[in-house]
Amino acid sequence: MAYSDFTLQEVVQRFQLVLEEQHNLFGIVPEVIPGDFLCAILDENVPLALALSTEKARSELMIAPVLVEVRKLAHRQISLFSGADFPVDATQGLTGVCDFLIAQSREQFFIHAPVVVIVEAKNENFKVGLGQCSATMMAAQCFNARAGTGLTTIYGAVTTGNVWKFLQLEEHTLFIDLPEYHIERVGKILGILLTMVGHHPGASAPTS
After folding, report:
1. Residue 53: which domain range?
2. pLDDT given at position 99
3. Which one of 20, 58, 92, 207 is most buried, by most CB atoms within 10 A?
4. Which of 147, 70, 67, 65 is nearest to 114 (CA)?
5. Contact at 8 Å (CB) between 35 and 201?
6. Which residues, 6 or more positions from 97, have their beta carbon under 8 angstroms from its beta carbon?
7. Contact criterion met (CB below 8 Å) for 123 and 146
């Protein structure tokens, strides 16, 4: 079994999670003004990605540019992985490839301190994506516990590139955010993702 084989119900039952759905988790998170470069990319890429309507196009033309912007706004103090193998516990089915993974570490050679899991909704099916995302979030939680990173809260997002839905795993409770955010509100999406990686939107670069 791999992350992509899990349904949301299977994750909740296997790992004895409490599911909470009636929350607006990030309503008070401020929007971030996207950079001119990202705005230009999305202006060009979004219509093309929607016209092509393939998973590869959405991943490369919409999702990846947003995540690269998050890394830039976080002053490159985080690492971003795409298509990385993330074997954590094969006996529990917690193994497979991550669409995207963000870690609270600058290390790019290997995954350390994973904190945000991004799953592309295959065939624009959010229900399937929630299963894969929550399973990978469980793996990240287990990984951090074994590594002693001190990270107990794991965040997730399921996205078509055009629409984003966010999750939060806190110990044994899985929260699924009620709102869905469209790419037209990329500033809000950036603000949420920055909050997830521990960088307050608008914070200044660290001094060295």
Report:
1. 3-196
2. 96
3. 58
4. 147
5. no
6. 2, 3, 83, 84, 85, 86
7. no
- Identify whether 145 is part of a domain: yes
For residue 174, CA distances in Å to 6, 16, 25, 150 come to 15, 10, 12, 19
pTM of the shown model: 0.93
Helical segments of the chain, H only: 8-14, 36-52, 55-58, 64-73, 126-147, 186-196
Structure token digits, residue 19: 């599911």
Please report the sign of the dihedral spanned by the C-alpha atoms of residue 23, residue 58, residue 12, residue 84. Answer: negative
Q: Is residue 205 part of a domain?
A: no
Assess contact for 66 and 35: CB atoms under 8 A: no
- Give yes or no for residue 124 having a pLDDT over 90: no
| Helix pair 186-196, 64-73: axis angle to 10 deg | 60
Residue 204 domain-assigned? Answer: no
165: tokens are 């839905």
What's the whole-number average pLDDT of the chain?
93
| Cα-only R_g, the chain | 16
Q: Is residue 182 domain-resident?
A: yes
Q: Domain total for the chain? A: 1
Pairing mode, if any, of strands 163-170 and 153-159?
Answer: antiparallel
pLDDT at position 204 is 41
pLDDT at 200: 72
